[in-house]
Amino acid sequence: MPGETIKSMVPITFLYKNRVGQALETYIGGLKEKKILGIRCPECEKVYVPPRTVCGCCHKKLDLYVEVDQRGTLENFTVAHVTIEGGEIKDAPEPYVIGMIKLEGADSLLSAVVKGLPPEKVKMGAKVKAVWKEPTENNYGDLAYFEIV
Ligand SMILES: [Zn+2]
């Protein structure tokens, strides 16, 4: 039905404790220092954020890390109504925005929570900047969210 929000409840719980791999470990190490690291392809010069080990275009192995800007553009977004806590899906206290962000100097999109405006006022093309957890903890959550500027 148009306008109706469909919620999916998925009753599965997984608890993983494994290495994320060299590229993401380097990325998370950068987040601890409040830096956003990408990786540049030596062939096509695309910069991927977060870093990956192989170029999606020319299949070159990647190992050249570069710092990208902490500002970017909201290319697309969705309004989320649930959160995942400890592997469990729960209703969010209020709807929030999950955006696809193109950082200055990057060629790929980074998914992150976006704050600063109510979801109904958020528009594609908005400029955003990174907001950090204080203090950082050497994990993916150190890049807390992006704020609309
Ligand atoms: Zn490439």
User: Could you give the order of the helices and strands?
Assistant: HEEEEEEEE
Give the oligomer, counting copies of the same chain as homo and different chains as hetero.
single chain
The helix content is under 10%
| Number of E-type strands | 8
Domain count: 1
Q: Please state the CA-atom Rg, rounded to the nearest Å.
A: 17 Å
Mean pLDDT: 92
Estimated structural class:
mainly beta
- Biggest sheet character: 5 strands, mixed, barrel
How far the N terminus sits from the C terminus, by CA atoms, comes to 35 Å
Number of helical regions: 1
Small-molecule binders here are: zinc ion
Low-confidence stretches: none
The dominant shape is: globular
In the sheet with the most strands, the strands line up as 4-5-6-8-7
- Portion in strands: 35-45%
Task: Describe the secondary-structure layout.
Layout: H1 22-32, E1 36-40, E2 47-48, E3 64-68, E4 71-85, E5 88-103, E6 110-115, E7 127-132, E8 143-148
Parallel strand pairs: 6-8
Antiparallel strand pairs: 1-2, 1-3, 4-5, 4-7, 5-6, 7-8
Briefly summarize what is shown.
With 149 residues, the protein is mainly beta.
Account of the protein in words:
The longest helix is centred in the N-terminal third of the chain and has 11 residues, at 22-32. By secondary structure, the chain is mostly beta strands. The strands form two sheets. It has a five-stranded mixed beta barrel with strand order 4-5-6-8-7. The chain has one helix and eight strands. It has one domain. The model has no long low-confidence stretch (mean pLDDT 92). Bound molecules: zinc ion.
